[in-house]
C-alpha cells in the first residue's frame, strides 16, 4: 500500500525532527532554534527588525537560542506561513493582521475599515487598548500567541493610471491582502479585488494580472514596484499593522532560562521597528520620487472628502459581519470619530 505523504504530514514531521534528534543527546548541548519566516526583503523595516531580534535574542540568552531568519518568502509564502506556525514548523512570524482571516479570527479584518487606522495616534491607541485582549484571546484559541504589534504606517495606492477620484478605480483589477473588508473596499470603488501573495505581487503587476495595489512606501521601494507602476496616490485610506506571533505551545514550553532574554529582545526590536518604519516610509517616498519613474499625487482635502464619501458606507456594510456594537467599541478604543460623509 503506498502512503501518500501530504504537505501537512511533511510539515508535522519537520516540526517533530528537532525533538527526535535531541533524543539521546543532553538537552542543554544544542541551542534552541527559532525559525523566523517573513515575506519582505531584509532591508524593509520588518526585515531589519527581524535581524535585530536575532542579534538580541542570541545575546540576551547567552547563545542558548539560535534564530534563523528567512526573508522574502524564502521559507513560506503568506498563507503557508500561518499554517506552518500552527503546526510548529516555524516559531516566529510577523504577518500583516489583514491576513489573519485564514486563522479563523475574522475580527482582525475590522482594522481594515477605511480611514479607521489612517491616523498614527488612533492606530497606536487601538493596539495599546485593553480591547486587544479580546483579539489576543481569539488568537490564543487558535494556538497562536501574539508577542507584539508593529506599526508599519499608512497605505498608499499604486497603479498604471492616476487614481485621483474614487471613480478612477472603476473596472481596475486591484491586488488585496486577503481580509473581507479589503475585498469590500475594492468593490465599493468599483474595482475587482484579487488576493495575491506578496512574494508574487511584483510579477502580477508586471504581467498585468492585476492593475494596481495598495501598500506602504517602504514595501513599494524595497520590492521595486516603482519599476512596474507609474502612478502613486498618497491616500492613507488604511494601515499596515503586523503582529509578531509565535506558536503557543512552543512559547509556553520555553525553558525558564531563555524566556526573559527573548521577552527583552521582543520589546527592544518592537521599539526599533516602530521607529524605523516611521523613518523608512518617509524616506521611501522620497526615494521613489527621485527615480523619476512614478508620478506621486497627494490627495487634496476635496479629493479626500470624495474618498471618504465613497468609502464610509463600507463601515455600515460591515455591521452585518462584526455587529454595530463591536465596531463602535473599536471606534471608542482607537479614538476614531467617523467623518461626516
Ligand atoms: C502585503 O502583503 O502587502 C504586506 O502585508 C507584506 C508585508 O508583510 O509587509
Give structural notes.
This protein is an alpha/beta fold and 341 residues long. Helices cover 44% and strands 17% of the residues. The chain has helices spanning 7-22, 45-60, 78-87, 120-128, 132-140, 180-188, 201-207, 217-222, 248-252, 259-291, 301-311, 313-317, 319-322, 324-334; strands at residues 32-37, 65-70, 92-93, 144-154, 156-159, 173-176, 192-195, 212-215, 231-234, 239-247, 295-298. Strands 7-6-8-5-9-11 form a six-stranded mixed β-sheet. Strands 2-1-3-10-4 form a five-stranded mixed β-sheet, sandwiched between helices. The protein is globular, with a radius of gyration of 21 Å. It starts with 6 loop residues before the first helix and ends in a 7-residue tail after the last helix. The relative contact order is 0.17. The model has no long low-confidence stretch (mean pLDDT 93). The structure holds (2S)-2-hydroxybutanedioic acid. Residues 39-40, 96, 177, 198, 215, 219, 240 line the site of (2S)-2-hydroxybutanedioic acid.
Amino acid at each position: 500500500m503506498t502512503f501518500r505523504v501530504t504537505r501537512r504530514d511533511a510539515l508535522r514531521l519537520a516540526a517533530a525532527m528537532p525533538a527526535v534528534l535531541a533524543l539521546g543527546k543532553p538537552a542543554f548541548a544544542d541551542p534552541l532554534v527559532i525559525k523566523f519566516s517573513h515575506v519582505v526583503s531584509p532591508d524593509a523595516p520588518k526585515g531589519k527588525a527581524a535581524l535585530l531580534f536575532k542579534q538580541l535574542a542570541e545575546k540576551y540568552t547567552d547563545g542558548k537560542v539560535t534564530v534563523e531568519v528567512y526573508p522574502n518568502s524564502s521559507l513560506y509564502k503568506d498563507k503557508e506561513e500561518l499554517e506552518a506556525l500552527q503546526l510548529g514548523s516555524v516559531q516566529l512570524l510577523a504577518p500583516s493582521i489583514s491576513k489573519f482571516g485564514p486563522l479563523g479570527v475574522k475580527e482582525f479584518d475590522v482594522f481594515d475599515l477605511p480611514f479607521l487606522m489612517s491616523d498614527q495616534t488612533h492606530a497606536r491607541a487601538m493596539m495599546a487598548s485593553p480591547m486587544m485582549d479580546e483579539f489576543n484571546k481569539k488568537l490564543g484559541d487558535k494556538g497562536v500567541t501574539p508577542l507584539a504589534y508593529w506599526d508599519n504606517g499608512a497605505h498608499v495606492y499604486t497603479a498604471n493610471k492616476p487614481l485621483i477620484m474614487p471613480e478612477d478605480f472603476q473596472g481596475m483589477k486591484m491586488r488585496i491582502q486577503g481580509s473581507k473588508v479589503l475585498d469590500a473596499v475594492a468593490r465599493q470603488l468599483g474595482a475587482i479585488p484579487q488576493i495575491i501573495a506578496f512574494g508574487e505581487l511584483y510579477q502580477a503587476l508586471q504581467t498585468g494580472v492585476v492593475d494596481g495595489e495598495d501598500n506602504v512606501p517602504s514595501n513599494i521601494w524595497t520590492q521595486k514596484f516603482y519599476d512596474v507602476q507609474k502612478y502613486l496616490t498618497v491616500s492613507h485610506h488604511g494601515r499596515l499593522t503586523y503582529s509578531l506571533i509565535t506558536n503557543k505551545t512552543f512559547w509556553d514550553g520555553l525553558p525558564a532560562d531563555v524566556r526573559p532574554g527573548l521577552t527583552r529582545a521582543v520589546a527592544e526590536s518592537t521599539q526599533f521597528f516602530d521607529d524605523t518604519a516611521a523613518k523608512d516610509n518617509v524616506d521611501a517616498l522620497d526615494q521613489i520620487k527621485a527615480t523619476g519613474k512614478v508620478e506621486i499625487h497627494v490627495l487634496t482635502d476635496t479629493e479626500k472628502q470624495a474618498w471618504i464619501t465613497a468609502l464610509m458606507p463600507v463601515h455600515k456594510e460591515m455591521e452585518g459581519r462584526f455587529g454595530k456594537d463591536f465596531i463602535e467599541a473599536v471606534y471608542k478604543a482607537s479614538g476614531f470619530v467617523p467623518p461626516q460623509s
